[in-house]
Amino acid sequence: MCAAAAPPLPKGRGPGDGVNRLAITLSLLLLLAAGCRVAAPDAPSAGARLPAAFPNAAAPVDSLGAGGQPWRKFYQDSALTALIDTALRQNLDLRVAVQRVELARADYIERRGALFPTVSLGGTAGLDRYGRYTLNGVGNYDTNLSQNITGNQVIPGPITPDFFGGFRSSWEIDIWGKLRSRRRAAYLRVLASEEGRRLVQTNLIAEIARNYYELLTLDNQLAVVQRNARLQQEALRLIRIQKQAGRATELAVQQFAAQTLRTESLAYEARQGIVETETRLNQLLGRYPAPIKRGTTLPEAGLVGKLGVGIPASALRHRPDVRQAEAELAAGQADIAAAQAAFLPSLTLTPYLGLNAFRADLLFNPNSVVFGVLGGLTGPIINRAAFRADLRRAAAGRNETYYRYQQALQSGYRDVVIGLRGLENYRAIVDLRAREAAQLRSAIETSNELYLAGYASYLEVVTAQRSSLDAELNLANARRDQLQQGILLYQALGGGWTAD
């Protein structure tokens, strides 16, 4: 609490000296208040240091760079890019994010306008009946008895009208930077909302790509299942012929039939997965279910070859969530400055200019022109709980955004590490599973030949067919996971949006 008592007015001074002393007293109060600025709250504890380099940082680098390129250079499939274009126009989450940006801009307009005076044009009319034993009542009565009052100057009574028309203004002078700090906080939140929109766009593009490649995977698996189903149907037909010839048992027929039924059920699972994935994609596109056009097949699908990551400090700065957290952190610091300045006195000027008279027919008389200005200096002295609460809220908000900033850095670093390692590992996995599937396809032919020659049992044929089917399905999953790792890495580096 800060307060200062005005010194007593010396005797024998004129009214002008009183005005001067009042101005001096107000100046002293302002200077005293300047020393009453509350201390800044403690800063949040520092987070863990960002590593100087990513693991496997020696990975090859191509022209794509670290996250700063448009997504069209990363996703080469024309059908996929067409889906993304549709989503950027129609996705509802993205439209909601755009409206959040508009809300932040509206708040900034309000905060910026607070720095300038408000001017209003209006008129008022009123009636007053003053009592005989009031200052105005006695004053009006005494004024009308004066010999200097004649004609239109006589005050009507006992009911006295009052008419005013003109301009009124109010202007808070931003002495301590409170309003400028609020404007800065609002501006930074506009930037944060823009980064939030880009974050939604980044996640949207990545999610569309994931579902699209999931759809290609299901298409590939359905084709594999149908091809194997045809082979198994042919094998079942042959084993039934052999049973009729006495060269096979009913047990063999049942094993082949069960294998065929299992494969047919896998086809229905793939079809259901296609329906669900297409439905999710259509929702991301902001439309009701409709056919999804494919531009390629899973074995032909691919992303831009390799991604360069650079050093963590620069690579992660391309992430929209990191940039959003940075803007929010700076806005929180501006909130603290504004909350500190709220403890200090505020100076408000309220000038006016207009026409004022106690009779309507005199209102537009040149002699009815009035103008004036009133300056007010107000500041909290007792019970400043609301201001202390605002300061605590601002400090807590700033600390929260700092920790969110640290979370965004850690999440980004984690995703990059997983993506880098995943690209390397899944490249090897796809190669090995492709060789496995080729070997097992050959094993089917070998088992059939050996069975017909009497050197293999029907169980070996069934096992070879099942192993080949599982291997081809696993190969499709590995190819999908390899594509997903590329999407994860590009998203982790802040890709997926254009700087428009």
Automatic annotation (TrEMBL):
Keyword Transmembrane attached: yes
GO molecular function list: efflux transmembrane transporter activity
Keywords on record: Lipoprotein, Membrane, Palmitate, Transmembrane, Transmembrane beta strand
Family matches, as InterPro entries: MdtP/NodT-like, OMP_efflux
A single cellular component GO annotation: plasma membrane
Source taxon at top rank: Bacteria
Main location as per UniProt: membrane
Signal peptide: none
Membrane topology, from the record: Lipid-anchor
UniProt xrefs under Pfam families: OEP
Subcellular location: Cell membrane
NCBIfam families in the record: outer_NodT
The family this protein is said to belong to: Belongs to the outer membrane factor (OMF) (TC 1.B.17) family.
Official protein name in the record: Efflux transporter outer membrane subunit
